[in-house]
Amino acid sequence: MSTQLDQLKQFTVVVADTGDFASMKEFAPRDATTNPSLILKAAAMPAYAPLVDEAIKAAGPAATLPQVIDRLLVVFGLEILKIVPGRVSSEVDARLSFDTAATVAKAREIIALYEKAGISRNRVLIKIASTWEGIKAAEQLEKDGIHCNLTLLFSFAQAVACAEAGITLISPFVGRILDWHKAKKPDANFVGAADPGVISVTQIYTYYKKFGYKTEVMGASFRNIGEITELAGCDLLTIAPALLAELKASTAPLVRKLDPAKATSADLKKVTFNEAAFRFALNEDAMATEKTAEGIRLFSADIEKLEQLIAQKRG
Hints:
The chain has one domain: Alpha-Beta Barrel (TIM Barrel). The protein is an alpha/beta fold. The protein is built from 15 helices and eight strands.
């Protein structure tokens, strides 16, 4: 009998959530996603030291640390694209999350580096935090044919704003939503369909399919394979190597849970958010407000650690 991983691939695009090339080769995902934390972890490994050196050399001695980081992200991305047949996600500096113009400029710089290396922009997704400023930046970029992956997404309001902005893909963070609710209610039974992260992504997926939005939903940040199996049928799921291994080791039947045909009959009303309504809705959602802010802080901190690593290597 086929493995759960093979069964999942029948109706969901599996994406590797890692900066480790060996894992990508083992699990044969279509796409791969990275973030500053994953790149920091990989860059600190001896096996990837040559790539760090390559990025430093390519950027040149006059380059600023952020410019070297951009090079490093692209160097990793180029290696990833030798392994996966689809797309790689490369992240804009999280410290720009509240600056639309700077985010647009940084995204264009990253795309230019990929295109200079001979990679079509259709194989790259620019990852941007799901702040209002980030969504507006992505809206501009999409009009220029630069495809975006809106990350650190925790709320329905963020998802709706992304869809209305014509974003290519969103990454709702299932596990981090669960983390917040477990911290508030440690004795609650958040298993399977009762997992608040699963509930959130199911709502977003159903809404998108009901109203014909083209934005793809890619569940992310999983804590267990139960979350993954409950979201089987989602457009894409980005999964860490340890959980990919669990799926590959199991031959238990996997049932499709999310289906666009079922979503079309859902009893939902269409909503819209201008800036004021978006900010108020996000403010009313304590979990989304706290987890978005926390995610930006954590990614920013890891970028600073990457800069320190680069500075030490440059001497």
